[in-house]
Write a structure and sequence with these properties.
8 copies of one chain form a homooctamer. The first copy, chain A, is an alpha/beta fold and 253 residues long. Chain A has 10 helices and 11 strands.
Chain lengths: 253, 253, 253, 253, 253, 253, 253, 253
Amino acid sequence: MNRPQLVAVLAQVRAGTLSPEDAARRIGDLPFAEVAAGTVIDHHRELRTGIPELVYGASKTPDQIAAALQELARVSGGGLATRVDDTKAAVLRAQLPAARIDATSRTVMLGERPARPAAAKIAVVAAGTSDLPVAEEAAVVAEFLGAPVLRVYDVGVAGVHRLLARVEDIRSADVVIALAGMEAALPSVLGGLVDRPLIAVPTSVGYGVAIDGLIALGAMLTSCAPGITVVNIDNGVGAAVAAVRIARMAVPA
Amino acid sequence: MNRPQLVAVLAQVRAGTLSPEDAARRIGDLPFAEVAAGTVIDHHRELRTGIPELVYGASKTPDQIAAALQELARVSGGGLATRVDDTKAAVLRAQLPAARIDATSRTVMLGERPARPAAAKIAVVAAGTSDLPVAEEAAVVAEFLGAPVLRVYDVGVAGVHRLLARVEDIRSADVVIALAGMEAALPSVLGGLVDRPLIAVPTSVGYGVAIDGLIALGAMLTSCAPGITVVNIDNGVGAAVAAVRIARMAVPA
Amino acid sequence: MNRPQLVAVLAQVRAGTLSPEDAARRIGDLPFAEVAAGTVIDHHRELRTGIPELVYGASKTPDQIAAALQELARVSGGGLATRVDDTKAAVLRAQLPAARIDATSRTVMLGERPARPAAAKIAVVAAGTSDLPVAEEAAVVAEFLGAPVLRVYDVGVAGVHRLLARVEDIRSADVVIALAGMEAALPSVLGGLVDRPLIAVPTSVGYGVAIDGLIALGAMLTSCAPGITVVNIDNGVGAAVAAVRIARMAVPA
Amino acid sequence: MNRPQLVAVLAQVRAGTLSPEDAARRIGDLPFAEVAAGTVIDHHRELRTGIPELVYGASKTPDQIAAALQELARVSGGGLATRVDDTKAAVLRAQLPAARIDATSRTVMLGERPARPAAAKIAVVAAGTSDLPVAEEAAVVAEFLGAPVLRVYDVGVAGVHRLLARVEDIRSADVVIALAGMEAALPSVLGGLVDRPLIAVPTSVGYGVAIDGLIALGAMLTSCAPGITVVNIDNGVGAAVAAVRIARMAVPA
Amino acid sequence: MNRPQLVAVLAQVRAGTLSPEDAARRIGDLPFAEVAAGTVIDHHRELRTGIPELVYGASKTPDQIAAALQELARVSGGGLATRVDDTKAAVLRAQLPAARIDATSRTVMLGERPARPAAAKIAVVAAGTSDLPVAEEAAVVAEFLGAPVLRVYDVGVAGVHRLLARVEDIRSADVVIALAGMEAALPSVLGGLVDRPLIAVPTSVGYGVAIDGLIALGAMLTSCAPGITVVNIDNGVGAAVAAVRIARMAVPA
Amino acid sequence: MNRPQLVAVLAQVRAGTLSPEDAARRIGDLPFAEVAAGTVIDHHRELRTGIPELVYGASKTPDQIAAALQELARVSGGGLATRVDDTKAAVLRAQLPAARIDATSRTVMLGERPARPAAAKIAVVAAGTSDLPVAEEAAVVAEFLGAPVLRVYDVGVAGVHRLLARVEDIRSADVVIALAGMEAALPSVLGGLVDRPLIAVPTSVGYGVAIDGLIALGAMLTSCAPGITVVNIDNGVGAAVAAVRIARMAVPA
Amino acid sequence: MNRPQLVAVLAQVRAGTLSPEDAARRIGDLPFAEVAAGTVIDHHRELRTGIPELVYGASKTPDQIAAALQELARVSGGGLATRVDDTKAAVLRAQLPAARIDATSRTVMLGERPARPAAAKIAVVAAGTSDLPVAEEAAVVAEFLGAPVLRVYDVGVAGVHRLLARVEDIRSADVVIALAGMEAALPSVLGGLVDRPLIAVPTSVGYGVAIDGLIALGAMLTSCAPGITVVNIDNGVGAAVAAVRIARMAVPA
Amino acid sequence: MNRPQLVAVLAQVRAGTLSPEDAARRIGDLPFAEVAAGTVIDHHRELRTGIPELVYGASKTPDQIAAALQELARVSGGGLATRVDDTKAAVLRAQLPAARIDATSRTVMLGERPARPAAAKIAVVAAGTSDLPVAEEAAVVAEFLGAPVLRVYDVGVAGVHRLLARVEDIRSADVVIALAGMEAALPSVLGGLVDRPLIAVPTSVGYGVAIDGLIALGAMLTSCAPGITVVNIDNGVGAAVAAVRIARMAVPA
């Protein structure tokens, strides 16, 4: 149950179309639903933090993912799972024919996106094509949370003119998510070109001394461009949640 | 020169009180001023990125700091230096009697804060008293950049009731900066209590396996509370700049 | 042979129902039994350290695990193996139909729990559902060693009210084992709420900069709550053994 | 205010010698006292966690240490500061002539040890003479918290017969703290010889690949002797607090 | 060709039973033989360094291992391959029916051990059963190089009496190889008990913070027992070669 | 003695103006001169590798530096010392009044630059003013070795237009040395803009997770711009030597 | 389109055999061609940087590799893919019967090598046979880019006479690429023997503390032979590109 | 008391020149002497391990060093202290005028070298002049323990001919200690040239990625030359003790 749903219930009470008892029961619905062995859905989470529970597919079986998505769709109209690899996706395609499975972002959505608070535009900027899975994860989650998304891909700094050609586009957004692996120089260059909040996502793209994204992470944290903030390696979901929190503030109440 | 100053110049041109030639000269003032051997002030930076140059005192001599502050005060009305240790501060106290030196935050301000765009309130929340220097650095910089600041200190999670007692206060702010050293659990707890953008700052407080803040940094990046973003260890300036960029968006244009 | 068994043998000698020669033979049974190529059971271990040998399944074949469990059951009445993955468990299910195989904790028990010294209650508190395998390993081992166990799961600090709601329960135990992965903030919060001995177990849950549990380990070791002690990553067995040693002291002799 | 003090106040109320109003005032005394700029004493901490606040001298000036000790002595009868180096100790010797300064353990005590709950005996076992500062820190803190302490020093494993000669002594204690630097093998050998709760403290003794205690820490965490728990490098205070929590349980209520 | 073979050739020349031309041809045999694509056998290596080439199976296909062993057997009478895993061993069993394959040490020997210089006895001492593959690799290689070997296994320090019971045996050897994983305390204890050259081999046994043997390596290098030398993790071959070099010196010329 | 000096000697021999005996003596001059306790000058080094010995001041006393420079000046006309800090420089100023001491590059030159092979132009490009000491070290060494140098400083990527404004200048050089600390993005951007050999030098500029230049090093090694090569952190000398070796090839023989 | 192709087009325009409109169209051909989902070919790259796009096979499916090679062959006459493992190579063998697949270097070439600027000879020197895949990758890429290559393999420093026997050969080249794993001492020895630009490539050959090439990388960066530059672990492509840039300068224009 | 001293005492008993009671008293002298607060001398150590106690000066005050040396000289005729820095040496020069202080090796010897078992010759081979302090520490300790030492210094591999010129000298020794910092290639080259036991000592010489000797240590452990063993960084004492143990075996009993 998110805030608009809560407000709607309370409005019904004021309008006399819902008895206080029934309202209490609806609101009081056990906030945690156990949907499969070891998988618990926290339905009041959105009320507390503004962000609904997202199903993290990497540590769940297809059965657990399916059960979680169905519970979320039942209660709030729609659910989203991330980190669903190809093997699990194939199983889910059979189990949940109505689900929309997106191979690039490794996400599965069941139902419709519930109505969410208005949010300003978020630009998702990725350095290379290898960064696309994480970039799309961020984009799909941001859209699921109600923010319009501008995708700007393949603008790594080794061809800085390609990036410069897209700067005006990027400036049309209110928040920027920048993704890069290897030496991860993109946020530093971008940070000198835009005055928007900029969230950097290191990706595990690279080999040898890239050390699974640790160098990219370190490079982003030591960026010479002030005001960049960083999330964990490959954490498209975290970047999207942070960006949406900001983007909601950029819209007049 | 910041954007309001630029707009003012252009308004004078439209009003006929300033000739285009003079305006061009003012605008065209060499954007970089060399104020001392090896110290260059970038006066157009604020125009490009919304944030003026701050003097990073750790890598400068007192002479260089003084020269940079004087140049900033001359052109824009006021300048701020950070990471000015006690020894350098003592020298500057003699050189710049008009400067305001703050021992806790290790900052030195010369002149007045220039007018800046409106910004919403920022809460600076620190876990322990050892985190105060970085917390105050963030608070002073945020104020210098035009944002009102709410300080909430000594609310580490080992006494979680102290934190809970201050949650309503923290919720009155639009952006939250959370600082902690050692195991750095504060942002995780806070992230489950507020729905605001939350910027976490690891501090180098701790010993042994704390490894100069690396564990605090890692803990913040792997926080189970989604939507937290992180800056470099002890980077109060970076957190303040990021928070101000967000806080400016939370104010209707 | 554990201490009660030894005392029983000696009592029989005093009572005249067992000849000294037979007693000597029973006590003198070769303390190490080789049960399969390279697998040695140390039967006097419990006498020396109070803790019987537990079969570490990760480095053994199903044949070796089965032989070790049978030897332990033969001599002391019951044996327990840990870290038995699904593949090995399937083989053992066929080899040892009488064994109780527990998928979550990855343990296999053959025979009955031998009588053990009395022990006070141990609370096993886990932050997230991904921590369950290690939490259950700790719980099952503690129970096998004779301690009653209270399970409190899914009380991670990002929803601190859930933890607060269970604090009174946790306080009913005499020793606390707290498990968490990622930033592992649970023990710090818990350490400020209970005055019991608290053993923290970092788990390898997480990705990217979590580095297979190293950040969780570091966070627990640098906890701002004094008096927390820590075991190796994912070491549910070690935490249980340490907790039982303490819990036995909390029971009047 | 610790629990016995609280019980005494309440007994006075029941006896009619203290009015409820006065009792409330005494109990309600602001639990946090600010004793010097940035130094806060948490007087209710002992009530909550059973352990009084200890003054961590490493991050405080002599003035702050003195103020904190005086406040603790005023309210509870006695205070203890740790990590007071030689320079600070010299200043404190002048400021607090009544204080007892111990050079080896780097501790300063003002007033008398307040009455504390009974606790069983704790053995503090150190591998080498270089480990003495941390060993004594643990011993002094344990004694301050009310536990009798047995010191067993210079029993490193490279001369294992010296350790064996002291095992019976060590077994007379109910809890064991074992300290070692370099390869830190002492707890592993000890863990096979005693059946008591064993808390291992890595010290930063060593050079080269010892890496300031990280190898000692890792060795203790991977000990082949089960049931050993570990605290941060050089953390004598933490080991003492954990040991006292256990030792209090070993005494019949 | 090793030194005895060379001396024999030269003796034949002096005796007139071999023409200088034929001798030259034999000696001058191309020292490097290419036996399979990318696999080169260095036949003069033993002449230069006293140690023949050993076939490192980990980086070779079964075909390459077979070809190398056949070439070594052809020229010097016998060859040894190490790090031959089960899969490769199965292929070699079919290809080289005459080879002796040893599963524990993962070695394959073809032909007979060539005569080698006399060497004193080497003790191979291992802490746990998980260390056996590396221990046997060291033992088999040492025997192949001509040294008698005493095996002392399963004497880890967590049961120090088992080790003490074997010390006299170990002292009968002239050189000691000590293997241990996890916290690797065995060499430290052993180093205080014997006055022989002691070579320590860290093994990758362990999990979590054991970090694939890095902690064991660090513990051995920082041992408080002076005079211990160390080889790479799991490097049984290197330890054996070093021990044999020493053992040859312990035999009167 | 460098190659031109050798050729000159041999020409004198052919011309009959130098006897073979004298020539031999000159050439045969002991190639290593001991100039002070523990300081040896290798006079034939330039003949072998094309690069004369440079005096590494960091590990030498002022006396040793002075003696080495005097020996180099005596034999080849001039010598250069690097890593001479302010304290040592002050001593040398008194000892060697004729020396040219450069504070920024921390170099001291005695005598004149000996004639060296022709070399093409080298651009030394530095990201920030904090990188100047290393940049100047590279520039001064390159000039000492005979290459013309173009300095392009303060062109960090956070203000990418400043870098673009200098690209044509940089393209006028035949080899590029790029220096940067922190996230070290400069070489990646530059590598996409120029087609010259590009040598990257990480500097130890930065704090926190910059880890004394390790992140900068890692970022340069994982650069997405192919063909960049890297030297050790702060290694201006190494970069200059590598660049000069290339620049000499860019000049027709 | 590379520079010769561009010059040819422009020559046609001057000769009147190509209309300016057609020329513009040819030049203006969209520089980026999308050849398969997510795979973009940058046809102007060679014009900008002198190096054509090489297909990095590790992050692509066989279909993507095939499409990229066909597009490159169509436009410029020939394309090269690297890091094509055996499985992908088998698929490509069927899809692209005309492609030349090289198992050792893991490369696939389609079409003919386009004409490229003249380049001097490059020596590729490898320490051991395990380094061959990376050495051949470097050699094949260098040849594809137009440079003649001298291969010198199996000259590791543990048999330094083998290396010395090849030094004159190596000196015949103008640029040297040196590859080594494990302790990677080859470049240090070689750097003292040749005066050519020397690019060192660490390989991931080794086990235990070799840490996947990190020690080899560190050893090369700290080499005592000045003027060595280094690329990422196993980065044969990067070394070849850097070497070719240099080798082109060694040829008179 | 060492073995010859013990034998001498026993011989006196047999000869009747010493009463059993007096002999017992001499032998039974308390094996540990406390010579200053916290400094204990283990007089039976040589009897147990063949090596007398050496005074490790780094962790002792000048008073403690002096007391330890005097006690050792009193009982056995002579004592040696290592890691005595310049400041401590100056104090000792005044306290112990009879002591021989050696600045390079940082050692102090009081009295005469006691008679020790015969030992074969040890070569101490160092790569650079910066390695001399550790090399001399090894040499002085080896001599103190009774072994003749051959010093071969400044033979780093970047000038491999210098090393080759000394190989015959080195081969005259029976054991080799090889020291090097930075990339530490010396043992690998040497390991291919000599067939003696070879002990490698990494030194902390170097900067940047040398990481205080960790790369040198890693390089030595991964050496491609088999049979090299390694001690801790800068551990000249450990190398000398290990070498002497070997060298004593190379001498017929």
